[in-house]
């Protein structure tokens, strides 16, 4: 059993930060708890943020989408605000995390703050230009999600709380697809790729290629993105897609472990990136979001 | 610490430890349908409903249930839908050793409460968190679809 001395409940983000800092000893935030109860870390107390009012999903009048950090992955799978954004790409990614009962409690914020290099929600959100909102006791800061991760299991948070992520309305109009490679459906990802393509006058614009599980932190394949930008997507793009996929494979930095070799992971980045770009291009030619499958 | 919750429909006070999981707390409260299998959120033999949603009680902190509603199989023994599911699982031969059955029943009950006309795929998704080491995976799906066919939403 997890050797905790105290379990605290936070009523707001500011309260949560204050309760964490109050001590004594080492404290941690807990939301769904599916990761923490699996491998209980050494700490003295936890602060439950599931009642801190950060589980809401909201759309602004302009069409920006806000996803509360304590929203469960099941909620992201089913809520119309999310299924209707960027062809349901975020819902698709959430639906492929864990199994049904895990998604009932596991949260978006938990997945991101746990900061595994293979965090399943990171690539698709990075491809949609997600911004994180981070609460301190007396102020909030926002930073791009791609800058949130600083290493395996490390983030910029310190003793502050992730309250949610926001996706800009413009990203909701991109075509976006994500895929992960796993040994079994529920297993930890070997490779994750998310591609989002915007368009401007028949050409690709706002190209995003995000990779997970193939470097210490989720990352964007910036050179591959540049290679695709301004491409006329009604032309034959076969060679350009193959080039971009090859470039993306060169931009990742995978490790070899008991799950897969670095060489295999790198080559799968190439394969998945190429496929996803091609599928997104098909979506664009058909005139919009074709769904995230 | 003491938490108050609605356990199987009744307001209940439970004495728990801060780091205890919900599985242990429920078995401590004589809910022995909640089986200890993997204790890693993989096998689903400890599935219960938390505010109506199926969860693996082994990876939910007991303290998280404070002020919420927790439903185990014991709380649904008189429920008509649960009784039909139980009957159908038996009739279809979906029960072998029986260790996974309470978890499967809870998962299927949650599905049919939310969707009276699930597809084969929906049922399989609902059971995605329930492992059966007797490897009986087809008959539970058949049983669930048979029950669904008798519900109002069947097409």
Summary tags:
heterodimer, A: 293 residues, alpha+beta, Uridine Diphospho-n-acetylenolpyruvylglucosamine Reductase, domain 3, Enolase-like, domain 1, four-stranded antiparallel beta sheet, B: 155 residues, Ubiquitin-like (UB roll), DNA polymerase, domain 1, 2 domains, five-stranded mixed beta sheet, 5 helices
Give a short overview.
Chain A is α+β, with helices and mostly antiparallel strands.
Describe this structure in words.
The complex is a heterodimer of chains A (about 290) and B (about 160). Helices cover about 30% and strands about 25% of the residues of chain A. Chain A is built from eleven helices and 14 strands. Chain A has helices at about 15-20, 75-80, 80-85, 90-95, 100-105, 110-115, 120-125, 170, 220-230, 240-250, 260-285; strands at about 5-10, 25-30, 45-50, 55-60, 65-70, 130-135, 140-145, 150, 155, 160-165, 175-180, 190-200, 205-210, 220. A five-stranded antiparallel sheet of chain A has the order 4-5-10-6-7. The longest helix of chain A is centred in the C-terminal third of the chain and has 24 residues, at about 260-285. Chain A is globular and about 65 Å long. With about 160 residues, chain B is α+β, with helices and mostly antiparallel strands. Chain B folds into two domains: about 1-75, Roll (Ubiquitin-like (UB roll)), CATH 3.10.20; about 80-150, DNA polymerase, domain 1, CATH 1.10.150. Chain B is built from five helices and five strands. Chain B has a five-stranded mixed sheet with strand order 2-1-5-3-4, with helices on one face. The longest helix of chain B is centred in the last third of the chain and has 14 residues, at about 100-115. At the A-B interface, strand 1, strand 3 and helix 5 of A face strand 4 of B.
